[in-house]
Amino acid sequence: MSVSTRVDLALLGFRGDAPVTRSPGAGPSDDGHLVIDGLSAAIPRNPLSPFVFDGDRVLLDGVDTGLDVSAVDRPRFYDLQTADGVAYEKLAKLHGRDVLATTVVQTCIRYGEDQRCRFCSIEESLRSGATVAVKKPHELAEVAEAAVRLDGVRQMVMTTGTSAGSDRGARHLARCVRAVRAAVPDLPIQVQCEPPADLGTITELHEAGARSIGIHVESLDDDVRRRWMPGKATVALSEYRAAWAEAVRVFGRNQVSTYLIVGLGEDPDEMVAGARELIDAGVYPFVVPFRPHPGTLAVDVDGARAPDAAVLEKVSRGVAEHLRLSGMSGADQNAGCAACGACSILPNVGG
Ligand code: SF4
Fold first, then answer.
1. 137-151 vs 170-183: helix axis angle to the nearest 10?
2. Minimal CA–CA distance to 77: which of 23, 179, 151, 20?
3. Which one, out of 15, 76, 280, 344, has a CA that is 20 to 30 A from the CA of 237?
4. Alpha carbon of 25 to ligand 1 centroid (Å)
5. What crossing angle do the helices spanning 200-208 and 237-251 adopt, rounded to 10°?
6. Distance 315 CA to ligand 1 centre (A)
7. Which secondary structure element, helix H or strand E, spans residue 289, and what is its range?
8. Where does this protein have coiled-coil stretches (predicted)?
9. What's the 71 CA to ligand 1 centre distance in angstroms?
10. Is 326 helix (H, G, I), strand (E, B) or coil?
11. Is beta strand 58-60 parallel, antiparallel or unpaired with respect to 63-64?
12. What letter would DSSP give residue 252?
């Protein structure tokens, strides 16, 4: 597959149905999950896209693109529910072919209109009834056990909205990790949270059984951070750097990652330079395109658009080159978004 077609798909999305989809929520969302050329691909659903997925092929203006593509099958664990009657699908979702993903707390102290990240819709899936506010550790353990047994899930991602406590939500993550590891000891888990004020919490997450960690800054440009993420921007970049360094010490090189979003207005060359510094510090910069979807302030208020294809490809190639030179690969992460790769084109360009 040509990289440019994969880039266009990541930006323009596709029309049509896929058995495994994700509704609006935390992070990049509202997508359908496909396998393209053997790699997981989370592609935005876009009724205006020129690409159509007909169940077997991707067509562009009615012509087969020739992509080797298949849909991810609906997992069997979606048909189960807890003893209390909560559908497993509301507790955790299948991402890509083999990732179980959950948002352990679906609310965020930063969700006020003047504070929230303008690309985020974490509480919209809660309002629509697609999920529950707080996932209980024993429920996640039950879902994870079933997803591994019935559907061959190989890794798990746990993210969280930010809580008011100084741990910023990490302690509940640790409780959830402990419960899942007790039920499925071999399932690698990545946790995702803001830098906890007490850096000792990072060790707690590791001791609970997490094997990778994402501490997501989204942009290294403070002006961009204040504009797009006013709440999160109150946490200084110096706090992120301290948390990444401690996480690399505890989890190891290339078991720590951060999202960098292309399309928020950051200078592409500065973005690549910043990503290289992260790589040198042992942190994997998971480069993803800004994905506009309704329900976010970016789309509903600002009318923001997906980034330019050439910019996404240039940044991704620049970052992938330094990853290769440094011997780092997303596939070498034990668990998490970098290990999955479906929301990025880094795996398509050697990262
Ligand atoms: S990259 Fe992360 S958010 Fe995207 S599908 Fe994979 S696990 Fe889910």
1. 40
2. 151
3. 344
4. 12
5. 40
6. 19
7. strand 283-289
8. none
9. 16
10. coil
11. antiparallel
12. -
> Residue 15 CB: number of other CB atoms within 10 A?
17
Q: Dihedral sign, CA of 103, 227, 283, 348?
A: positive
Mutating to test ligand 1, I would choose from 337, 346, 348 the residue with most ligand atoms within 8 A of its C-beta, which is 337
Query: Measured between alpha carbons, how far is 306 from 291 in angstroms, rounded to an integer?
Result: 6
Say how far residue 348 (Cα) sits from the centre of its chain.
Answer: 17
Which pLDDT belongs to residue 350? 93
Q: How far apart are CA 130 and CA 351, in angstroms?
A: 33
Strand, coil or helix: 99: strand
Structure token digits, residue 251: 């989890």
Q: State the DSSP H helix or E strand holding residue 178, giving kind and residue range, or none if neither.
A: helix 170-183
DSSP per position, 58-98 = EEETTEE----EEEPPPPGGGG-B-TTS-BHHHH-EEETTT
- The CATH superfamily of 3-349 is Aldolase class I (3.20.20.70)
Alpha carbons 172 and 31: distance in angstroms, whole number: 27
Residue labelled with tokens 């910019």: 311
d(CA 202, CA 167): 9
Alpha-carbon distance 27 to 140, whole Å? Answer: 20
Phi, psi of 283 (to 5 degrees): -105, 130
Place of tokens 């299948």: 94
What parts of the chain have a pLDDT lower than 50? Answer: none
Question: What residue ranges do the domains of the chain occupy?
Answer: 3-349
Alpha carbons within 13 A on the beta-carbon side of 147: 30
In angstroms, the CA 317 to CA 146 distance is 38
Ligand 1, residues at Cβ distance < 6 Å? 27-28, 42, 95-96, 99, 101, 157, 337, 340, 342-343
266: its two tokens:
């950051």
Query: Quick check: helix, strand or coil at residue 279?
Result: helix
Q: What is the rounded CA–CA span in Å between residue 210 and residue 110?
A: 25
